[in-house]
Design goal:
mainly alpha; 3 helices; about 0% strand; transmembrane; Putative heme/copper-type cytochrome/quinol oxidase, subunit; membrane
């Protein structure tokens, strides 16, 4: 009797898990759409960060560039 009840419980659990797997197909997620959405979000962030870094570099280069370089004076002293 005890073996029969254990077998019945295992059969019901197996049947329940099989049915739940079959009917779980309703909530299918399109992983490629999620991946492309994440790709576009990351590319947007990358372009924004790249623009900020490039703008910072241009600002630093123009701020600290040498003005009125006297190249002739250096050439005359070396002779």
């Amino acid at each position: 009797m005890r073996n029969l009840s254990i077998l019945a419980v295992v059969a019901v659990l197996t049947l329940f898990s099989t049915v739940s797997i079959v009917y779980a197909q309703e909530n299918v997620v399109d992983r490629s759409a999620l991946a492309w959405g994440l790709f576009y979000k990351m590319m947007t962030a990358a372009f924004i960060v790249g623009a900020i870094v490039q703008g910072t570099l241009v600002y630093i280069i123009f701020k600290f560039k040498e003005k009125k370089v006297k190249q002739r004076a250096v050439e005359e002293k070396s002779r």
